[in-house]
Amino acid sequence: MALVRLTPICLLTYLCCFGALTSSVLGAKARHFKWEVKYMYGAPDCLENVVMGINDQFPGPTIKARAGDTVVVHLTNKLHTEGVVIHWHGIRQLGTPWADGTASISQCAINPEETFVYRFKVDKAGTYFYHGHYGMQRSAGLYGLLIVDVEEGKKEPFQYDGEFNLLLSDWWHKGVHEQELDLSVKPMRWIGEPQSLLINGRGQYNCTLASAHNSNGSGLPGCKFRGTERCAPNILHVMPNKTYRLRVASTTALASLNLAIGNHKMLMVEADGNYLEPFWVNDFDIYSGETYSVLIRTDQNPTDNYWISVGVRGRQPATPQALAILHYQSTTASKLPTLAPPVTPRWNDYNHSKSFSNQIRALAGSPTPPVINHRRIFLLNTQNRIDGYTKWAINNVSLSLPPTPYLGAIKHGLRNAFDQKSPPDTFEKTYDITRPPSNPNSTYGNGVYMLKFNSYIDVILQNANALNANVSEIHPWHLHGHDFWVLGYGEGMFSTKDEGMFNLKNPPLRNTAVVFPYGWTALRFVADNPGVWAFHCHIEPHLHMGMGVVFAEGVHLVGNIPNEALSCGLTGKMLMNKTYH
Amino acid sequence: MALVRLTPICLLTYLCCFGALTSSVLGAKARHFKWEVKYMYGAPDCLENVVMGINDQFPGPTIKARAGDTVVVHLTNKLHTEGVVIHWHGIRQLGTPWADGTASISQCAINPEETFVYRFKVDKAGTYFYHGHYGMQRSAGLYGLLIVDVEEGKKEPFQYDGEFNLLLSDWWHKGVHEQELDLSVKPMRWIGEPQSLLINGRGQYNCTLASAHNSNGSGLPGCKFRGTERCAPNILHVMPNKTYRLRVASTTALASLNLAIGNHKMLMVEADGNYLEPFWVNDFDIYSGETYSVLIRTDQNPTDNYWISVGVRGRQPATPQALAILHYQSTTASKLPTLAPPVTPRWNDYNHSKSFSNQIRALAGSPTPPVINHRRIFLLNTQNRIDGYTKWAINNVSLSLPPTPYLGAIKHGLRNAFDQKSPPDTFEKTYDITRPPSNPNSTYGNGVYMLKFNSYIDVILQNANALNANVSEIHPWHLHGHDFWVLGYGEGMFSTKDEGMFNLKNPPLRNTAVVFPYGWTALRFVADNPGVWAFHCHIEPHLHMGMGVVFAEGVHLVGNIPNEALSCGLTGKMLMNKTYH
């Protein structure tokens, strides 16, 4: 097997072709991008397949910016019949809630051949990504990285000599339109486990790079690459005795992942755009919607190369590990590592996962949470049936998004646009989370949690048993428009006495937090960002099946929403016909 | 093989469930329908596949109305991310051009979860159908029949004892999103011949109903049906010695078809909603976009049944015949015909096709064309390459539809909505139609042929050689908003002297006319219907690749276009922001 030099850095520098810089005050810049979204043929895992690309690239171009910059993406929809939006995952959209890129919530989907301009400030350095947020277009491959460096002249609280990006995703051979249908029919047809895991859009199906090692017992034949294949592995070219930052983001549709590097410990330093109190790990879990930065020291035998392996956690895996190569430049890139790839921890070793999650602390000096809350919302996560259709529901309400985006509807007082009744703040405390729902009926709904502006909100995410006995799944919940503090994780049913366990001293700020099977997760945030914000399980099929809620706060303070974001549904009607109300 | 009674009449009567009648003056009624479009699993040719259905039916429900009625379809888009429209093929939309159901032309596509109300008069009895007119949604299965009977108390110019509908289509196993992509990539990947032909949405793949006969030499095994299968054959249950009307419509994506019935001659009496001077045939060709009514007399041996066979014409067939059964009720429906199915004429026996087309005459007393024209537009049909992409072009312009529908754009004078330069009325007369284009470059365009209101327009459709040597394809051209008179067909390059051949006495009125390979077809119509009207090859991939033009006439006379039809593109912008112009 010959491997050419295909580095993620290539992807990064390529991006600059699309970015034109405009100077601005204080060194901040407006960075303009002209993007076209369309389907294209790709070969994410060597098998040719339809992918959703941006400017003929899959994954989409990496955006590089500095904190304080304004990113301006002119997004043109070149799909034939589908709308499209792009969500800038982790960017809080302070002052620009209409640029959050969530269909039905922040804007109308962009129609074919039309252009929408996303203009927003990246106020905080960190590792972010972007992705489709309409139907299951993220699963179709509509994603890419958004890297925000510190302001010019400022420093990170750690040092490194070089950096690499690893965008993790999972891949199905079945197209997303059929996946959407499968999840929507009665009885539901589960999409199953992904065929492949991808690193920067590259995976290998039906062959393994590590055929010399039987560590994974896959029995797969070795991949035969010349190195020019679109699915040839990622190679991270490093110099010995340096420190490198790996920025890792997971935009998987389903899979919870674990990443490890042969012989190299990793120092966790950033999560979701917030600095961590550094701690060393041999491997770490990453759930869909999360990002991490880790530092590695290239202090191992420089005449060898090392595997970077990514495997599945939390679900009985049916997908081989994804592999990349850490290549010490003193050797040749085509030399395969001598050591076997690191073995992913057993999928259901949740103690391993919890131990990792519980180690995550904010870097000293980070903002600390208010010590009180003004409102506590309990959200019971259940799998349910509605008229025989399998759904996910929160407090027995399965989210069914309306055609009019909430942001415009609330701002303009269009009461017919969605259920005016607020969904419940809690659930029956006698609910037995250890068994399949005894009354598995829930309802569709699209009501909104109206949050008092600037109030302190607690959310207790409560996991439960799914429809099948002895099954409770992992759900990584992602909040738009905010970071939240993760106050704690617990087992079983949350009870008030668990408050004593809350970490109010140095809880990490995140935008995504996992809820473990049969457990709970406690979050706190300040409802200080005028807008309407999705809060949902980041597992694409779960969201598609209704697993989310909508928060709104201070919408009266939202500035002028561009008409382009309002041209559908009742806001469109209202604007076109001023007599409508 | 046991066959149960599955008659098209079932489909017809089922429809009534969705139709509520509202009385109106003069016996005319408003017929209301509430439809939801979504993807569903079907098995059009026994293989399970995704189809686009209406109210969980594929094909969509048959609309039955009487001339003078108003049809009101409340169409709700239940697709996840795609827009949708429905075109009422053959209905002229007198006074309601915004209800023509052509995305980019008469209206904005309906967004997911939104409802558009199609309200239009069916002014003329006849056999019509409806279908998607956005992307390739027709190919996905979005179609159904629209049958308009004569007004109550009025009579057809022929008599019959019963009637059956045969909606013909072709079917691919590859989904339309992938087909669209295949046609759009460089180099183009041709979608190939259909896997199956369908009669009322039913075909049989990889098996044949007529295994007892080797007439088609298919070598396919016999189909094993219990009769309840969704792909079990259509059976037309007839009584001996009666006259039946068969209404036949073709909504194929690609295939030109021929229909024949064992031992039964057919009397052609109607085409595209216009009466014909009756003539007998043993078989007839039907191109995509056409409808015919034929009368048959059940005067054959009543102890036998007879095959109805449908086969491919004009392209080297790779698709087996579709078969249905004419069942004499004196026998059992499960008795297969003794005689072999009629053999479809050789695919390239164009003389057979031309002879049929030339026999078609309007019934005596039908409207006759003006004897003069005010403007003659020559439209050269060529296959071209633009930047390496394979396209079809008319006078070297490949139609690329704009995001703002023309109807609203013209009515409101939005000059940026489309090319203001009119496309050419003719082409270089030295063009050699017998060879591949020597200069195969054409351009994209979206200009409009502005027709003087009430003027008499001639169109000469001129066929030519495609990109490959010795290939010239059949193109059935369909005009929206009008019927036209088919003045004649000819071979080679049209020349003025060919005018002498024009039939001005009793040319048939049609909305679709075929252009034969290397030939021309001459049409005349009166531009008397205020609106903007597509005129295009009805082969779905050809239209997708640019094979169409746009006519506009009397748009200043168009009444108030519903805002819902204008909420996209520049009309949407204009209506939402009155300062735009």
Question: Keywords, please?
Answer:
homodimer, 581 residues, mainly beta, Immunoglobulin-like, 6-stranded mixed sheet, 36% strand, disordered N terminus, repeat (chains A, B)
Model description:
Chains A, B: Belongs to the multicopper oxidase family. Chains A, B: Its EC number is 1.10.3.3. Chains A, B: Its cofactor is Cu cation. Chains A, B: It is found in: Secreted. Two copies of one chain form a homodimer. The first copy, chain A, is mostly beta strands and 581 residues long. The first copy, chain A, folds into three domains: 145 residues, Cupredoxins -  blue copper proteins (Immunoglobulin-like, Sandwich); 196 residues, Cupredoxins -  blue copper proteins (Immunoglobulin-like); 202 residues, Immunoglobulin-like. Chain A has six helices and 33 strands. In chain A, a hairpin with an 8-residue loop joins β19 and β20. The radius of gyration of chain A is 23 Å and the shape is globular. The N terminus of chain A is likely disordered. Chains A and B meet through β2, α2 and α6 of A and β2, α2 and α6 of B.
